[in-house]
Amino acid sequence: MYFVIFVVNSFWTMRIGIDLGGTKIELIALDAEGRELTRFRQSTPAGDYHQSVAAIAAMVEQAESVLAATGTVGIGTPGAVSLKSGLMRNCNSTCLNGRPLKADIEQLLGREVRMSNDANCFALSEAVDGAGAGCDVVFGVILGTGVGGGIVVRESVLDGGNHIAGEWGHNPLPYPQSHELPGPACYCGRSGCIETWLSGPGLSGDFLRLYGSDISAEQIVLQAQAGDRGCMHQLDVYCDRLARSLAGIINMLDPDVIVLGGGVSNIKQLYERVPETWGQYVFSDQVRTRLLPPVHGDSSGVRGAAWLWGR
Questions:
Q1: Is the pTM of this model over 0.90?
Q2: Where does the pLDDT of residue 41 fall: very low under 50, low under 70, confident under 90, or very high at 90 and above?
Q3: Which residues on neighbouring strands pair with residue 193, listed in sequence order?
Q4: How far does Cα 14 stand from its chain's mean position?
Q5: Cα–Cα distances in Å, from 112 out to 56, 69, 71, 98, 306?
Q6: Cβ contacts of residue 142 below 8 Å, gap of 6+?
Q7: Which pairs count as long-range contacts for 228-235, CB under 8 Å and 24+ apart, including other chains?
Q8: Angstrom distances, CA of residue 95 to CA of 27, 122, 176, 195
Q9: What residues contact residue 291 under an 8 Å CB cut-off, 6+ apart?
Q10: In what order do the strands lie in the sheet with 15-20?
Q11: Distance from CA of residue 179 to its chain's centroid?
Q12: Lower CB density within 10 Å: C or N end of the chain?
């Protein structure tokens, strides 16, 4: 039998963040002002849980050796910790599912670590020193292969009683039109989830159903910019669906800022056209919520992991 004792030094000012992805593991170290001290990455050991855990611990030790300092450690994951079992679940890196990731890393490092999903880390990064800096309530959105979200209130992640706060992608599309019912099948077992419409595959899948052409979301955007009428119409429909969906978030959460991340967030038209549309769905005579792109881009996830310990 063995015991691990965690000692948290309140004088630590260095914040280490880890972004554990399916193809890469990235580390960043920040000082108390958010300045980058070091950053490096390596490939994720494919399908090997134990090597992934060992790689994370080795990267932390390497960073602390290079900087001659010890820091707090936060980890952004592609899934979540089950409140029932304490084990990882819903990870697209399937070797993590059913594993005690937090406990195993803490054992190797001999200290407490903090973990949250990648959408929460994205939202936290943009709330602390990104597009939502200085705001009380920030909603971070991931529009990529899936649709995720995270809520940050006064620079703290809101997990919720079931640790599913911000999971707006598995609500039904608001104000559905007759041709949108029952909606595409979702992997969660339901139909018509927001994710099935607003993810990258959702955008291209809807285009395939309407026009019989199997092209990517990126190609739809490029062809719309070139004047293709079908692609232009598809973007109009996408903007309306996004406006409806975000209006529901505004009605419930009333965030100061909504920040978009993920590959689909690179569509520049969203930032003008969606706020022009969502007012008709929001229960207010004025909508002050701002829709913004991320300041830190692809770095938001790893920076947010570092900020899980606060400033």
A1: yes
A2: very high
A3: 172
A4: 23
A5: 14, 16, 11, 20, 13
A6: 118, 119, 122, 148, 149, 261, 262
A7: 231/207, 234/203, 234/206, 234/207, 234/210, 235/267, 235/269
A8: 20, 23, 37, 24
A9: 246, 257, 258, 260, 270, 271, 274, 275
A10: 36-43, 24-30, 15-20, 72-77, 114-117
A11: 30
A12: N
* Exposure class string for 85-106: b at 16+ Cβ within 10 A, else e: eebbeebebebbbebebbebbb
Amino acid sitting at position 302: V
Structural domains in the chain, sorted by start:
15-118 (3.30.420.40), 131-294 (3.30.420.40)
Residues in CB range of 11: below 8 A, 6 or more apart = none
Q: What is the C-alpha to C-alpha distance for residues 263 and 220, in angstroms, rounded to an integer?
A: 13
pLDDT digits (tens, 9 = 90+) for 108-131: 999 999 999 999 999 999 999 999
pLDDT tens-digit map of 57-93: 999 999 999 999 999 999 999 888 999 999 999 887 8
